[in-house]
Each structure stands twice: as C-alpha cells, then as structure tokens.
Amino acid sequence: MVNQEIYEFFRSAHSSGSGLASKWLRQNSDMDCHFFPEAWENQQLRANYGIPVEEEIIFKRDTSFWSDHNQGIVITDVTIYVHPDNDDPSGFFYFDWDIISYVNYKDDIFYFYDYDNELVATLHSGMFFKGGDFTESNKANVAKFLTEATSKVARKVPAGDVIIDLEDQEKYDEALQALAQLPQDALQDPWTNLAYGRIAIKKSMESDEPIEELFDLANDKLQKARELAGDDIWNKIFWYTSYWYGYNYAWIGQNYNARNFFINAMESDADGMKKDAIQMFDLCEERLKDIWDNYLTTYEYNDRKFLMPVRDYQIAGCTATGVDTFKMSNIPPCIKFPVGHPVANELYIGHPYKPELYVPYKGHEDVFFVDKIHELSYILQCLGAEEISITAVKGKTVNEIENSNSKLGASADFLIVSGSAEGGNDSRSRQTTQQNIERTLVQRFDPIKKPYVPEGLIWYPEESKWQRLVESRLNGNMLEYSEFVSTYDTSFTSSTEANEIKGSVEYLWNKLDANASSRVEKEFEQKVETQWRVDVKFRSMHDFDNPSASKSNALSANEQNYLETLMDYTDGGEISERERRMLDRMRVSLGISEKRAEELMASIQVPQLTEDEREYVEMYREYAEKGEITEKERRRLEKFASALGITPDRVKEIEK
After folding, report:
1. N or C terminus: fewer CB in 10 A for the chain?
2. What per-residue string of b and e applies to 351-390 under the rule 16 or more CB within 10 Å gives b?
3. Are strands 385-394 and 440-447 parallel, antiparallel or unpaired?
4. Per-residue pLDDT tens digits for 276-322
5. Stated pTM of the model
6. Are residues 536 and 588 in the same domain?
7. Strands 306-310, 324-327: pairing kind
8. By residue range, what is the domain housing residue 570?
C-alpha cells in the first residue's frame, strides 16, 4: 500500500454503504463491476494492466466480452488504469491520483482535471457503472466523491515547478542538483534543457570569475534544447537559447560570439528579452571597439573573408555561418571599399593580399584578375620592358572587363592602364597603342633605369613563377617572356565554400530582401573562365651599362624608319609645309605619337652656337680627338667655360 489515506477513504465509504456515491459503492454482486476484488482477480488485473505489487486494487470494471480482465478500468490507491479496447493495445493509458485536482460530470462523461485546470482524461460513465439503473444525479455524485478522494492524496508538484521555484529564489546549487536527479525521460524535454543551461549560467555569474565546467554544461544543455525542439516551438527555443548563449559567452569575455547570439535574440517576440538583447548587443559592440579597429590583424583571412553591411534597423536575426554582418553605422574603420561602396545588404569578399580592401562578391573574380595583371605589368616595366602585349585568349576581353569593373565602382587601381603606369616613375613611357581593343592591348616603354624589383608588391610574394622570372631577367638577361593568366588562378573561393556561403547569403537575404531567391541565383551563377596571355620584350641588360648604345638601340623599327626620313628632309635645310604634312601622315601610319616625333626631331637638330660657344667647341674637340678627356683637361674646360660665361647645362648640350 502506498496511499493508505485514500485506500481507507474508499474502504470506509464502501463499508458504510451510505453517502454521495452509495449506489456506485454497492456494486458488489456483479463480478464485472465491484470494489476490492478477490486475490485471484487481482492476479489477473496486475498481469494485464501492469499494476505494481505495492499498489492496492480498490475497484475494477471489466468490459471485456469474456470477462478476461483485460479491458475496462482499474482504480488503485495510486493510479487509475484505463484500457478502452483490448483489440487496440496502443489505447491503454493511466494517470495518478496526485496530479488530479477535481472531477466533473456531464452527459455521461467524467472529466478529470489537474492543478493547472488542464484536462487530464475523459472517461465514459460505462467505465464506472454496469447496467442502466443509475440516474444522472447518481453519476454526478460519483464525480463529487472522486473529487473528495483527491484531497486524500498529497499533491504531486511537477519537478519543473520545483526547479523554477528554486531558480526564482536564486538557490542555483539546489536547482542544479534537482535537475541532475531528474529521470532520463524528463531530460528529453527542450524546455527542461533550456532551464538547465540558464541556471548553470546564472550560477556561474554568481562567481567572481567564469567557471569553465558551468560554461561547458550550459552550452551542452542549450544545444540539447535546440536538438529536441520541434517545428511548433523551434523559433522560441532558438531565440531563448540564443539569448542565454549570448550571456554565457559575454561572461567569459568572448564578446564577438556573444554579440552574434544577441543579434538572433533581438528577433524574440518576448518584449523584455528583445529589449535586453538589444542593450547587450550594444554593450558587446562597445567592448569590441578595439577588435573592430584591428579587425584585419585580429582575424585570419579565412575567418573574415566575407562580410555584409546591414541597415541598422534590419540587424535583428541577421547572422549566418561564414559571413560577418555589421550595422552600416558600425563597420570596422580599418576596412576600405571601392568608390560608391559599401552598399547595404551587399555581400563583400576581402582581397587576399590587400587586407584592408573588400570588393563586391559579384564580379570579384574580374577585379582580382585585372589587379593581378596590373601588378604583373608593373613588374615587367620595372624589369626593363620595352613592349608589353596583353591578349584575350578566352572569355572576357580587355574592354569588357574594364567596363564591368567600372560598373562595380572599382577604383582605377583595378583597371588596365596605359604605359604611364607606376613604372613610369623610373621608365619613360614612349608610346601606348591599342590594336583591336577587343582582343589585345599593347604598351611600349622607353626604360632608362636599370632593372629592379619594385617595393609594395601584393601578388608577387605568392607567385613562384614571377619570382623565377625576376631571377632569370636580373641574372640571365632574359629578353622575351610569355605567361597565361586565368581567372581560375585568382579564384579564392572553392565550389564547396561557394555553396556554403550561398546558403548563408540566401538565409540573410530572405530576412532582408523579398527577391532573395532570384538574386542569389544571379549572384552565384557559374562563372566562365577568362584567360589572357601576357607577352613582353625586354631591353638588353647590357644597354643599361652603355646609355648611348641604349638610346640608339631603344628605337623600334618604325621609329628608325621615321628618323631616317627626318634626316633626309632636314639635310637640305628648312622643312617645307608640304614636307611637314607628309611627315605627319607617315608618323600616324607608323603609330608614333606627336611627343615622340618631337623627341626624334630634337635628336638630329644641331644647336646654333654663339662666337664664345664655338671657341669652347674648338677646345673641347681638340681634347676629345686625342681620346678620353683627362681630369686635368676637364678642369681646364670648366675654367674656360666659366670665363666665357657658358653655364654647365649649356656645356652638356654643346658637348652632346
């Protein structure tokens, strides 16, 4: 016997044969419906209903056809067992007296309610009476009798209620102990695991320092809550666990993780939680100021590769794997964007070798590709290139990529420029022509500085082919070189990573953009490879050791042709207007710029000399004809020029 008081309550009422339920209690003559069955009946009932031996059987109503004691109702001092149909074992159920608060009756149905006024079970009157000799009043009185019986059993307080009460009283140790003692089936409830994680966090926050064991326990239980949540409560469990995840990470100082969890909790439909999550997010952002200022050096490239600025009012819920989201008003200040950017809700990818630069993901392959071509051209110029030819072999042409980059808002750093690129600091640009711009870009240079490797290169440290090129050029006097560069070479996103990011971006855009699906497909469509060939012709390394030879050898075939024609025309004196027109037409057909034509003209014109200058030339020629001018002779020439009033610059012109 477990609950002696309720057993004695039924025994006393049955013995007296009077009271509210007297007619029901007197059902002892029928073997299918009576109180306090005999031992042999109890044996069958325990076997068929699974009744523990410590429970005392008070009442049975057998509704089976052959009186097999396997269908109907059995009431014990602990539990009410119900088996409506022995052909359907799944219909069997039971409930304990200690959860029942009261019983109502109406229209042949008995209604059993718990202490929260929740309906526990409904039983037809046929489960209590056999035959039709019972009035509605008799049945209503039985409900009252059963209600009185519930008062004889100590109320069973759900374990969850006990734990919540302990939590409210801030008795976290006792609450954790109670949770640890719960049976395994109770720990398969998502709300129980949520409470477990929440209480572990509150207990940890009581200490001066975070407690690692409690941190791990909380994360484990919050994750379990998410795993157990069904579709009907998933959103609530997700918001609540995010909120407490945020506190758990904030307490141990991992504010980056905490701010992301609070972003998710900001979507909660619980106003108090939502408001607190917003405040905690702002607090985390404030704590992260130093991190944002040093974002590029704090995180490895792959950990900060993708980011998406979001309008401030849309940040709630906007977190996704592999993509950092920022309010437009609080993007890390160390990040730089192309002209016209950043744009809200746009996906950006970091430049692999320019840490501060982020470009739109859409079209980034072309941006990186042209950037690499640009640097290669610059290196070739500094190595003494006389001509660089860039030919589109496959995919987009030079013109197409320039146009697409300008539409992306890219700065001039990304565009294919003329011969006056950075290399012009040490290499005079002679001429730039475009031959069939759709396919080829040709650049010509007049290098004057000895070949060297420039500083500040971005791609070069990672390009072993370029490094071997430099060694061959500087140490072996390479004169020609060709290389194929492909967008595949500059791709820093694998197909697997692209698919993962695609899923994350689609999730974010579904929150931000009604046209997310179509936009995602366009953004992540399969790209066609673009391949260009870069051909270069170098000036000989020997020419940089012999400037005069270099100047002569620097002439291209077209320039040499034009120079010879100039010498023929000037040999007879002044050039006529008709001859000038002919020379100009020839210049255009040979692809020689006006500036270069003037330089060639100047190179063959003899300067007009004054009387004093002619005297200096005679003295200079006298020394020069003997061979190399000695230091002593040079001092005499300088004194003579000074006496004649001829400046050092004019001396150089005359001697040349």
Report:
1. C
2. bbbbbebbbbbbbbbbbbbbbbbbbbbbbbbbbbbbbbbb
3. antiparallel
4. 999 999 999 999 999 999 999 999 999 999 999 999 999 999 999 99
5. 0.59
6. no
7. parallel
8. 555-604
